């Protein structure tokens, strides 16, 4: 699908031609249109001139931007009595109950050593769909205020129990395994809130981290805490060079 512009205005007011070419048969439709044609009006022209003859295509190639094409497809399906749910490579067909990873930006906090901290946290379970763009995520108790997350910040997670152990999810599990810490990715400090550490656990996926409250982190052996903090400081100094 393409558009021929820069044409003189016709007697009926048209100044653009919408061109639709079938990739297989090379059959073409030349549809008179207006230069100010928006996505919804474009979909109506497509439905009236193409779909009524050939049905709904499986794919449309166009150089229009993604926002235009999203609205185009939504209108097209609405006109034909169906609904359209968009998915992306990050969250394909994400449903309530699925496990997802949450991007660090979703937490909206400033964390030290951002280059050493993980980009994704989790996995967490989706517990409620708020609307087409947002879900409620089963984040730990320490993050109750951040349970609602936009779909742009979540990525579908497929668990593979044959490779890694599961990191602790609850505070009780964290306390039971507090001396199994293997690294610190960073920490966050906000006025009026408890300090939290982004930590890695032995025998777990080292690309994923859990947020641990300071009161629990301090239950680890002093020698372990000092060793992990020393390594984190070295990494931070190396990045600043």
TrEMBL record:
It catalyses: Endonucleolytic cleavage to 5'-phosphomonoester. It is found in: Cytoplasm. GO terms for cellular component: cytoplasm; nucleus. One of its GO terms (molecular function) is RNA binding. Residues 1-95 form the Integrase catalytic domain. One of its GO terms (biological process) is DNA integration. The keyword Protein biosynthesis does not apply. Integrase (IN) targets the VLP to the nucleus, where a subparticle preintegration complex (PIC) containing at least integrase and the newly synthesized dsDNA copy of the retrotransposon must transit the nuclear membrane. Once in the nucleus, integrase performs the integration of the dsDNA into the host genome. Reverse transcriptase/ribonuclease H (RT) is a multifunctional enzyme that catalyzes the conversion of the retro-elements RNA genome into dsDNA within the VLP. The enzyme displays a DNA polymerase activity that can copy either DNA or RNA templates, and a ribonuclease H (RNase H) activity that cleaves the RNA strand of RNA-DNA heteroduplexes during plus-strand synthesis and hydrolyzes RNA primers. The conversion leads to a linear dsDNA copy of the retrotransposon that includes long terminal repeats (LTRs) at both ends. This is Integrase catalytic domain-containing protein. It comes from Pichia kudriavzevii.
């Amino acid at each position: 699908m393409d558009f021929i512009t820069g044409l003189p205005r016709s007697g009926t007011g048209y100044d653009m031609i919408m061109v639709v070419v079938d990739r297989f048969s090379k059959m073409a439709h030349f549809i008179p249109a207006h230069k100010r044609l928006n996505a919804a009006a474009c979909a109506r022209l497509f439905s009236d001139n193409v779909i009524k003859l050939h049905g709904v295509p499986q794919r449309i190639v166009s150089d229009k931007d993604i926002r235009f094409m999203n609205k185009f497809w939504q209108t097209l399906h609405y006109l034909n009595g169906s609904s359209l749910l968009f998915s992306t490579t990050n969250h394909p067909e994400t449903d309530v109950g699925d496990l997802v990873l949450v991007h660090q930006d979703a937490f909206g906090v400033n964390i030290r050593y951002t280059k050493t901290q993980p980009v994704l946290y989790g996995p967490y379970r989706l517990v409620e769909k708020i609307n087409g763009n947002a879900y409620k995520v089963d984040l730990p108790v320490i993050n109750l205020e951040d349970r609602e997350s936009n779909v742009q910040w979540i990525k579908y997670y497929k668990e593979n129990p044959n490779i890694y152990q599961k990191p602790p999810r609850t505070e009780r599990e964290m306390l039971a395994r507090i001396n199994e810490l293997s690294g610190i990715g960073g920490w966050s400090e906000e006025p009026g809130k408890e300090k939290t550490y982004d930590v890695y656990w032995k025998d777990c996926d080292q690309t994923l981290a859990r947020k641990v409250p300071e009161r629990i982190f301090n239950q680890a052996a002093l020698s372990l805490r000092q060793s992990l903090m020393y390594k984190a400081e070295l990494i931070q100094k190396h990045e600043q060079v």
